[in-house]
Design goal:
By secondary structure, the chain is α/β, with parallel strands linked by helices. About 30% of the residues lie in helices and about 15% in strands. The protein is built from twelve helices and 14 strands. It has an eight-stranded mixed beta sheet, sandwiched between helices. The longest helix is centred in the last third of the chain and has 26 residues. It starts with about 30 loop residues before the first helix and ends in a 14-residue tail after the last strand.
Amino acid sequence: MNSIKPFCDKIRRRDMLRIGTTGAFGLGVTLPQLFQNQTFAASHSKDHVSLIVVFLQGGLSTIDTWDMKPDAPTEFRGEFNPINTNVSGIQLCEHLPRVAQQMDKFSLVRSFGHRDSGHGPADHYVLTGYLPGAGFNGGLSPNNQRPAHGSIIARQLGPRGSVPPYVCLPKAHNSAGASYLGSAVSPFVVEADPNSPSFAVPDLVPPLEISASRLEARQSLMATVDRYQKSAETQANRKAQALSTYQQKAFDLMTSAQTKAAFDIHAEPQKLRDEYGRNSLGQSCLMARRLVEAGVRTVLIDHTNWDTHFDNFNVLKNDLLPYLDGAMSTLFRDLADRGMLEKTFVLVTGEFGRTPRINKDAGRDHWGPSTAIALGGGGIRGGQVIGASDARAEKPATTPHGPEDLAATIYHALGIDPKTEYRTAEGRPMPIVPGNGKVIRDLFA
């Protein structure tokens, strides 16, 4: 699958950020900056639940996967058939056989939806809980008018140990930024594909073949350059010297066994890597498990391109769904086998669903009003279906749930009060969840 294929709006969704730079809104930060910023973030860290978001950018066709309508007319129901799962009475798509056998570990919300069917605004809505307002530009990187879930979590809970609290991989989504919360809680961006044979994390972990002596040589070179900065006893120079403390911490982390263990995906058993799938989505899910195991609080996986306007069924059957089947099923099983599922909240979602009616190109178009999301771990009781869509998956048929409710549910699961609010520099209150957002309590029943 070509992960940089343009979406229907002609915007390439590759992140324009590069490690080592900081945008005006603080989407990405270098490692020394991250250490410096974390000094001012939350100072008391507790052992809360972690979050993994598997974001299927472009829009998963949930009528063909999580919420099939086999009794609907042909032009709605599509080509796929449902199969039984390991939970009696719940069926999923025939092309997700491995996921079907893990149904007891996650639940579905089939009455989910919202009022925007455009990629950029819908992305922002799902990843923050807030529908963007006037002036929003989905093509900007970052484009946040409100902080992403990961930044809120980083602000409220702070880091665990030396690892960053919020990580994006294999790149940064445009709506993954911190907005008014600033760079202190921006995501650390891996900016590399874990499926690559030469995978290494720029600016965080050097390629594993680089020896400690070579790193020490680089540090020596940096020290030579730094001597020029220390030639004048100015206030600016004293600030530079303070920053060098964080540079040293970054160097120490780069050479630490703990960091290498967390980011060295090559240390995983070959059999397990094969089970996740030798593709970007599969290896990103495996890396996410490694990161939360090491203490990262939020991992956002951005996977494209699920924008199936054309040849929807062939693309899903032969390309996208096999990746999802291996990655998602193995992630839930692996977390459970390691005793991590209760401490890891997993969300699998796109920004919206696809149109119930099949279009003239054998595809499905954008559809915000009705979709379904999968959630498991973090205290959620698996093997449930919450709510329902109508007979053709055109709209929710039961109590509707939206991105506001999803945000409240995520924060609740991680021990954060959804009614928390911040204040801007002008003193304006900024709630982390819109006033109408409610925890989806049935998930925890």
